[in-house]
Amino acid sequence: MWHCDACDHKEACECYCRSAGVEKLLAGKIVVLDPGHGGPDSGGVNYGFQESDINLAVGLKLCKKLTRCGAKVVMTRTSDVSLTPVGSTLDDDLQARVDVAEKAGADVFVSLHVEDVPNINLQGIASYFPERRSYELACAIQAAVVEETCAVDTGVSPADFYVLVHNEMPAALIEMGYLSNPEEALYLVDNTYQNAIAEGIFKGIISYLQLGIPSQ
Length: 216
Ligand SMILES: [Zn+2]
Known about the structure:
It is built from seven helices and eight strands, in the order H-E-E-E-H-E-H-E-E-H-E-H-E-H-H. By secondary structure, it is α/β, with parallel strands linked by helices. It has one domain: Zn-dependent exopeptidases (Aminopeptidase, 3-Layer(aba) Sandwich). The strands form two sheets. The chain has a six-stranded mixed sheet, with helices on both faces. A hairpin with a 2-residue loop joins strand 2 (45-46) and strand 3. The mean pLDDT is 92. Residues 36-37, 43, 51, 113 line the site of zinc ion (ZN).
């Protein structure tokens, strides 16, 4: 089971929503969570693990935390499926995710992914935002996830990922680690580590909402 040797950080706190007016802050807020890939598109595959499964596992944990504290959560998928029929393009699938967020009238959109690259030494967590907006959301999530997981902080950057640039609401995409790194891969499939990531994103969303930035 994952735990950080440096700070002995293990289980994420389960009672956060009772503190500091979090339930009041989340009441009526609509959060769209987008576990990347799914169905025939597994995303990265390494050491017998699939990116799509990790994204979904963290997404479901995060959904539970947010819902328990009063937010309305809409998931782009809750099982191992594609959002579009067989034969659709990747852009169709990505647009379907944007459509879910737009239809829900999301206050916050968060897409969940993990990296899979040829260099097995790369590790850490990075957060991305669409150019010229949502920087604060990505920063808030990145800071909280790094704090919660003790993972390497690979920073916050603008990016032109489809789901970031084709929607209107505050949006961030989190690369939660490297499936290509043998050590990090084992963390990413660990229930406790997934819970720590989810707790970090949860706290990051709350920090962002506490800033009170208008969504347009
Ligand atoms: Zn991905």
